[in-house]
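Support request, please re-run this one:
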Amino acid sequence: MTGYDAYAAYYEHVQSAYDQIASEYDATVGMYAVSARAKRLAIDVIRAVTPSKGRLLDVGCYTGIEALALARAGYQVLGVDLSPEMVRLARSKAKQWRLDTQARFVTARASDLQVVASDRLVPFDTVYSVYGTLNLEPQMARFKEALQRCLRDGGAFVCGLLNPTVLYELLAAPILLPFDGFRQLPKRAVPPRIGLGNQRVLTYLYSPCEFAKLMSPEFSLEDANGLHILYPPPRPRPGARSDRWWIARAFDSMESHLEDQAPFSSLGFFSLLIFRKR
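Re-run finished. Output below.
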């Protein structure tokens, strides 16, 4: 199998996996307490680094949760996702909520952002990818090249990545729960489960320092925060409700003091990174 064929097979598998969970995404992964808090924090960061009513590109928009929230706040958003079913649902919600002029959605993978190069919003004020989409992109060099072309000079790139080393798992998992292969110290891709079933997708994990090296020298890292340092990793189950996580909510104030402090900024379930285009 050639390199091109290997990439095509990988993308096809990822697309199929996310098409299958699209209909349940909002009620499970999208609203699970850990992921919901990460999304809220990411929206706050995006708004902080973007001019009022600015132009946004959402790379890995899923069903449009962040994009539509930002469109409601007056931003102009273009969302892209590898999954046609996720994009269909995002478009449907935008139309239903009368936001389809503020938020538009197209099917594309992160390494093929050239498909939006002629869009009316280019160059974007901020590009964001905040829920692990780039952990599923094996062609990071192509993504970075396309990102340079569609982001304005001095614009921000906000990135949320799954981390290879999580404090909670290091301390608690050996006692309270088995490792499921999601967090691994070896420098190789791992196949975590997604959604409610047993579907697995090969995932590339990066520490903040490793990802900063990938983005250098064209993009400089301005800030890094570790999210969900003290929280168990999300494992959605049918019928699970977010209010069962009320105990974990007590960690929020503690984490807010730790998340931007070394070494905790590199030990969260997610790393939320802010880059600036040079």
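Residues 16 and 90 are 17 Å apart (CA to CA). Strands lie at 55-59, 76-81, 103-107, 124-129, 151-162, 219-227, 270-277.
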